[in-house]
Design a protein that fits this description.
Helix content is about 40%, strand content about 20%. The chain is α+β, with helices and mostly antiparallel strands. It has one domain. The termini are close together. InterPro entries: DNA/RNA_pol_sf, RT_dom. It holds the Pfam family RVT_1.
């Protein structure tokens, strides 16, 4: 999936841990056995979700909520135009969206993004001081919002309760309070707590599409809707715009679409089984930012933490 780096280890006796191996992963597994080896959430009891229908009212509501200052995508259709024309085009767009869902196909033009760069500060001739921003056609994001609104409850009810990212009612603050509460209880017992802070490198860009589709299926997404997601993820392209000049499109072979509405939710589904890889440590996530921690009272506890870390490492390499 992605490179995983150990940013920091908080412990009072660092020499107790064996040397950590460098965490690497492959953009694509080698064969079907690798996919079968990757754990997926057990959701066989959930109701399948194969078809959804988008009404003109759904489209009109989302069009009217558009920000007039939103940047345009490659089609250059401004949000202001779509917003003012919402009463007249919502029915036609609804028909087009439903046709896309029933056929499992998305217009090719909606799968092209423009990449622009926003300065973060510092020297402007250093490329590392710029943040890439992906701009998608606004109409395609309206479709994504319609789909998101209809599947989010189905998906969120199955997400791990230790995931705090991109979910309504959860935040970095709620995750921090959860971890501090657990560590505080251990401190009250005069117990040491060791924490591994983990971060995935380019996490959103290296998701394997075939494995993601398998996990979507295990969330109960099937039929036309699963076919739509397969088409949504594949054959995407992006163009780079610098100083009013735009490059030729290049294919995007992995990852969830940056700048999209569905991308964050798809990522949560992909990493949903990560907490299941540890056997003795607790895990809390905010999207890909992960804390892995446990109480330490004897030398074996150090080795258990390392074993959990190795299991996460193996999960990343599949």
């Amino acid at each position: 999936m992605s490179d995983l780096s150990l940013d920091h280890i908080l412990n009072r006796n660092p020499h107790m841990y064996p040397p950590a191996t460098q965490l690497t992963s492959h953009d694509t597994p080698k064969d079907s056995e690798d996919y079968d080896a990757h754990p997926v959430p057990n959701t066989t009891s959930c109701n399948p979700l194969s078809d959804i229908t988008i009404s003109p009212d759904d489209v009109r509501r989302i069009l009217l909520s558009q920000d007039d200052n939103k940047a345009t995508g490659p089609d250059r259709i401004p949000a202001t135009l779509l917003k003012y024309c919402a009463p007249y085009i919502s029915s036609s767009l609804s028909d087009l969206f439903n046709k896309s869902l029933s056929s499992g196909k998305i217009p090719v033009e909606w799968k092209i993004s423009n990449i622009i760069h926003i300065p973060k500060g510092g020297v402007k001739n250093d490329v590392s001081n710029f943040r890439p921003i992906s701009l998608l056609p606004i109409v395609s994001k309206v479709l994504e919002r319609c789909i998101y609104d209809q599947i989010v409850n189905h998906v969120s009810s199955q997400l791990h309760n230790l995931q705090f990212g991109f979910l309504r009612g959860r935040s970095t603050t709620s995750q921090l309070l959860q971890v501090l509460h657990e560590i505080g209880k251990l401190l009250d017992q005069r117990m040491q707590t060791d924490i591994l802070y983990l971060d995935f490198s380019k996490a959103f860009d290296k998701i394997d599409h075939k494995l993601l589709l398998k996990k979507l299926s295990n969330f109960g997404i099937c039929g036309n809707l699963l076919n739509w997601f397969q088409n949504y993820l594949t054959n995407r392209h992006q163009k780079l715009t610098v100083l009013s000049k735009t490059s030729c499109p290049i294919p995007v072979l992995s990852g969830v679409p940056q700048g999209s509405i569905l991308g964050p939710l798809l990522f949560l589904m992909y990493v949903n089984d990560l907490p299941q890889q540890t056997t003795t440590s607790s895990v809390d996530l905010f999207a890909d930012d992960t804390k892995c921690y446990r109480a330490i009272s004897k030398p074996q506890d150090f080795r258990d933490v390392q074993c959990d870390f190795d299991r996460i490492n193996k999960w990343c390499q599949v």
